[in-house]
Design brief:
This protein has about 1050 residues and is an all-beta fold. It contains one helix and 72 strands. It folds into seven domains: about 160 residues, Jelly Rolls (Sandwich); about 150 residues, Sandwich (Jelly Rolls), CATH 2.60.120; about 150 residues, Galactose-binding domain-like (Jelly Rolls), CATH 2.60.120; about 150 residues, Galactose-binding domain-like (Jelly Rolls), CATH 2.60.120.260; about 120 residues, Jelly Rolls, CATH 2.60.120; about 160 residues, Galactose-binding domain-like (Jelly Rolls), CATH 2.60.120.260; about 70 residues, Immunoglobulin-like (Sandwich).
């Protein structure tokens, strides 16, 4: 039997050559009695390919049987194989195709097999590991399956040199003691060769080592050994190397072949000292083409040119941690998750048996740290070379066993940010203590090292031994209160809503999937019923207090196909508040969080509803557990689109950069929630020093002031002071407007006319509080809703001729079958007389029937007030075309002090002709009304559908030949309402989240408003509403009308 030099070297270094058993080599005929139960055994033939690793003269030949996936080829021994020591089998195979070879031993009711891949058209040595049956002595049959499972293959295979040997303990690839063993080549940089070891007093006492100088013009300076025959990594696939580096950096060890490669990157945490690094290459155990060993020092850095010493490159057997994937956040658990590279203290830390197994720490292995005598601030440092990612995992946990009750110090250091320290007292000695160091406030900082000080600041005359374990980063867990965990029968009353079986069934059951992250014994099980909006109800034991913790969390195990869940909090006074979240995965436990921050002021939530996958066929079951209340982690602004007209509302529309004074402004709770400003969060501006101290908002581009040129800002001032609004930036002159605070300690909306700044390119808004006065440092002002709006309407309001004068947000009321329709824009059917416009609005009044009232009409809600500039002419005019005389009502609503003018009536008297009709509001204050309601034929219900046309709504007899309009609204869709008719509650199917829902009766009077982030399928409580017909207006997150609907209350 002829052996390749490389294999011989392996066997010699492992000290096992004399122990091997040669089962078959074919040199003097066959040693074994081979039998082909399938296929053909061709016997001993001349080696057809002596160019590779097998230069034997004779080999065995076998042709696989066609249509036999497992073509049986075997030998039966007289005595059983002894696997006590010789349990590694090797065989050389030449295959005409790239495939697999399966070697199997069996007999006496036992069997063991191993399968290996093989390349084509070359001798390949395959290694089969039978160590798992080292204690079995009954197996007498050896079976070879070529291309197992492939019944279309009938190729001829050659095989040779079947040996058995003990498992090797190591393979020394390089030690430089008698010169280099490997053919090192510096394709970049310089390989000096063998040099004298400059530091033999450490972990490497070798006399000779290798020296390599990195190229200072290559970021990946290539240093390589290359050989003809592949490395066999099947048994030895853990690499060890010793490195002496002049700098703290990194290195890469890479094994590479034809289409196969594996590299491991390691941190070098200590300079000018020998350190040993062990790397797991078990993923490459089946690689068969590895012929290159590559080292990269200081990888990725081009300009460095340091000299590195290295030695004792050894391959070792895999250990029990082979294949371990690092868990994000785990620094070191002293078992298989050993992900830290230590600098200071590296020679004082080691993995040992746990000296004190307890409920606090029951792990088998822990770290032993020996604090050197006389060193008060000796430290254990985990060095990362790169910045530690603290964006999410920023709370450091560690279990410590200390023989002395002295404080611990946990420290972040080594980066661009200043060091951060957290001292923690050691409450007890001689017991495990679980420490938590919260570094979450430094999440955005740059740190590269974790330093741990045992008995920080205390020196001892002798070495002191400490133990540490499970050093890991974790996400900051918000404080939470468990409301329900379903243990011991549960804490809350759960049932299908209204105890209606149509809403499904519920029971508490044993956890069907008691695995991480939910190993609870008991959970809730809910199955949906026949109702489209099946819901599950829980009665809360105490009203929820959302003042500090506004988020509810629920663990959910959902069935396949599940996608959404809505949590609904029920208030007897404020109605239902909903939050809908996606179910990110099914068939496993996940935590879903629901934010109710916008409802934090509501104190009477006593009921909770859950709605899973409304209007779907998914029945369940859904499992739920661990309902808790905690701090907010859900982004309340998720999905909110930017409104270019809003500069800052201190909630989700924060759309400009603060380029000056940012340190003086913060988001704060509204100190004075009133009708003037009911926002829960506002801006708090603290006056700095200086008479002209200011804050500057800077937009990415110029403000578009062509239409929206009125700056509106709500201010709560502590006293009456001058305030200055200034536009600057761009090519135009600076524009300034100064005014005085009109009322102190109240919210006041200030409006500034910047229409003259249109087209000047200003992109900065500068705000001065107490402008030009001696500063009252520390005085607090509150701001809100800084935004651009339209000027009050003093001339034309609507003319239907196009954006922005074409309102499509009209909503019908009391109009029967047309209740879900709107006023449409059509061609003018009669371009003569007082109205020759191209476009007009068409209103269709429904014929008598269900839901039709004499006061059928439409209303339109805007955000910009109507301003009567002439006190002697407080009128509104509108052009009308009808086919009969009629009394027409034009009602103004949503004023500052007056909710509605009531029904103001005027007469249309020119059937089939355009007539300008005017309504007089002189008996009402100029109250900046924002809503229009129309009833076009107050006295009658038609017997057939009627078309009426309107146009040119304007103030005080003015003209609509201008370029401003009150409403710039997109076409508004109709929402579906269910159930309809309804008794207790309704839901609207909105395609997006709504900021506000308004409900009006058939008279156009507002009867309910829901100010919340309403989501599709959320429930609106209508218990307090009287029976009748009602109309819904829904507004999106920008406050824009997004849809309308009608329903009947029984």
């Amino acid at each position: 039997m002829k052996k390749n030099l490389l294999i011989t070297f392996l066997l010699l270094t492992a000290g096992i050559l004399s122990a091997q058993v040669v089962w078959e080599d074919f040199e003097n005929g066959a040693n074994l009695n081979w039998v082909a139960a399938d296929g053909v055994y061709n016997g001993v033939i001349a080696n057809p390919d002596t160019s590779g690793i097998n230069q034997s003269d004779s080999v065995g030949s076998y042709t696989k049987g066609f249509d036999r996936g497992f073509s049986l080829f075997r030998v039966q021994m007289d005595t059983a194989f002894d696997l006590t020591e010789n349990n590694i089998f090797r065989m050389q195979v030449w295959s005409p195709i790239a495939t697999e070879v399966l070697l199997k031993l069996e007999g006496g009711g036992n069997a063991v097999e191993d399968r290996k891949s093989i390349q084509d058209s070359a001798w390949t040595e395959l290694t089969f590991d039978f160590r798992s049956k080292s204690d079995v002595n009954t197996m007498t049959d050896m079976i070879i399956f070529f291309s197992p499972g492939n019944n279309m293959d009938s190729s001829t295979y050659y095989f040779d040199n079947i040996i058995a040997e003990p498992a090797p303990s190591e393979w020394v690839l390089e030690d430089f003691e008698d010169g280099p063993r490997l053919n090192w080549e510096a394709r970049n940089g310089t390989f000096t060769g063998v040099v004298e070891n400059p530091a033999t007093d450490g972990i490497n006492p070798s006399l000779n080592v290798g020296s390599y100088t990195k190229s200072d013009s290559h970021s990946f300076s290539l240093f390589i050994h290359e050989q003809e025959e592949p490395l066999d990594l099947s048994l030895l696939n853990r690499a060890k190397i010793q490195i002496y580096s002049p700098v703290k950096t990194e290195f890469i060890l890479k094994l590479e072949g034809s289409g196969e490669a594996k590299e491991v990157r390691m941190n070098i945490p200590s300079a000018n000292v020998w350190r040993e690094y062990v790397m797991d290459f078990s993923d490459a155990a089946d690689f068969t083409t590895i012929t290159k060993i590559i080292l990269f020092f200081d990888p990725g850095v081009e300009e460095s040119g340091d000299t590195y010493l290295f030695d004792n490159l050894v391959l070792l057997p895999p250990d029990e941690c082979a294949g371990t994937v690092p868990i994000p956040g785990v620094v070191d658990n002293f078992e298989c998750q050993r992900n830290a590279t230590y600098d200071n203290g590296w020679d004082q830390i080691s993995a040992v048996d746990n000296p004190d197994l307890s409920t606090v720490n029951s792990t088998a292995k822990v770290g032993q740290y020996v604090k050197p005598a006389t060193q008060a601030w000796a430290t254990l440092v985990a060095d990362y070379d790169n910045a530690i990612d603290l964006s999410t995992l920023n709370v450091l946990h560690a279990k410590v066993w200390s023989p002395v009750g002295k404080r611990m110090l946990f420290k972040l250091e080594g980066g661009a940010s200043p060091a951060r320290e957290i001292f923690l007292e050691m409450p007890d000695s001689n017991t495990w203590v679980d420490f938590t160091a919260d570094f979450s406030q430094y999440a955005a900082e740059d740190h590269k090292r974790i330093a741990i000080f045992f008995a920080a600041g205390t020196a001892y005359e002798e070495d002191v031994t400490f133990y540490i374990d499970e050093i890991m980063w974790a996400e900051k867990m918000n404080e939470a209160t468990i409301l329900e965990d379903f243990e011991d029968g549960g804490q809350l009353a759960w049932f299908p809503t209204n105890n209606d079986m149509g809403n499904g069934t519920f029971e508490i059951i044993d956890n069907p999937d008691a695995t991480a992250p939910n190993e609870s014994a008991s959970v809730g099980s809910y199955s949906r019923g026949s109702n489209a909006f099946s819901s599950l109800t829980a009665i809360l034991s105490d009203p929820l207090d959302l003042s500090e913790m506004t988020q509810l969390n629920l663990m959910i195990w959902a069935p396949e196909g599940a996608s959404t869940v809505t949590m609904q909090l029920v208030s007897p006074v404020e109605g239902n508040k909903d939050a809908t979240r996606d179910i990110s995965s099914t068939g496993e436990w996940i935590t879903v969080s629901f934010d109710f921050g916008s409802s934090a002021s509501i104190t009477d939530f006593g009921q909770l509803n859950l709605i899973f996958d409304a209007e779907t066929e998914i029945a369940g079951p859904y499992y739920i557990d661990n309902l808790s209340q905690g701090e907010t982690t859900v982004d309340p602004c998720e999905g909110v689109e930017v409104d270019p007209n809003i500069i800052d509302n201190f909630e989700c529309q924060r759309n400009a950069t603060i380029s000056l004074g940012a340190e003086d402004l913060e988001v704060a709770p509204n100190p004075d929630i009133t009708q003037a400003n009911n926002s829960t969060t506002v801006g708090k501006y603290t006056e700095p020093d200086g008479p002209w101290a200011a804050l500057v908002y800077e937009a990415a581009g110029p403000f578009d002031l062509s239409i929206y040129n009125q700056l509106n800002m709500k201010i709560w001032a502590p006293r009456q002071v001058p305030i200055l609004f200034k536009l600057e930036g761009g090519s135009g002159d600076v524009m300034e407007v100064t005014m005085d605070v009109t009322t102190a300690e109240e919210w006041v909306n200030y409006s500034v006319d910047f229409s003259d700044a249109a087209g000047r390119g200003h992109n900065k808004l500068t705000l001065f509080m107490n402008a030009g006065q001696e500063a009252t440092v520390g005085e607090e002002y509150y701001w809100d809703d800084i935004q651009w709006g339209l000027a009050p309407f003093e001339t034309c309001i609507v003319n239907f001729e196009g954006d922005p004068y074409n309102p499509t947000g009209w909503t019908y009321f009391a109009n029967g079958t047309y209740a879900d329709s709107t006023i449409n824009v059509v061609d003018n059917p009669l371009k003569e007389g007082v109205n020759t416009s191209d476009k007009v609005g068409r209103f269709v009044e429904a014929a008598e029937g269900d839901g039709v009232q004499m006061f059928a009409g439409a209303f339109l809600r805007g955000n910009t007030p109507i301003n009567f500039t002439d006190p002697n002419n407080q009128t509104i005019s509108m052009d009308i075309l009808m086919d009969h005389e009629a009394s027409v009502v034009f009602k103004l609503e949503s004023g500052e002090t007056v909710n509605t003018t009531g029904d103001v009536m005027a007469q249309y008297t020119t059937p089939n002709e355009w007539q300008t009709v005017t309504w007089d509001y002189s008996s009402f204050p100029n109250d900046q009304f924002k809503t229009i309601s129309l009833i076009l034929d107050f006295d009658n219900i038609p017997t057939e559908d009627k078309e009426y046309f309107i146009d040119n709504i304007r103030v005080g007899g003015t003209s609509c030949d201008i370029s401003t309009g009150i409403f710039n609204v997109e076409p508004v869709p109709t929402f579906m309402v269910t159930p309809n008719p309804a008794v207790d509650a309704v839901r609207i199917e909105a395609p997006e989240e709504m900021s506000k829902i308004e409900i009006y009766n058939a008279m156009g009077q507002q009867v309910k408003v829901v100010r919340d982030r309403y989501q599709s399928q959320s429930e609106i409580d209508i218990n307090e509403i009287q029976p009748g017909i009602y109309y819904i207006q829904a507004y999106d997150l920008k406050g824009k009308l997004a849809g309308h609907a009608k329903f009947i209350k029984h």
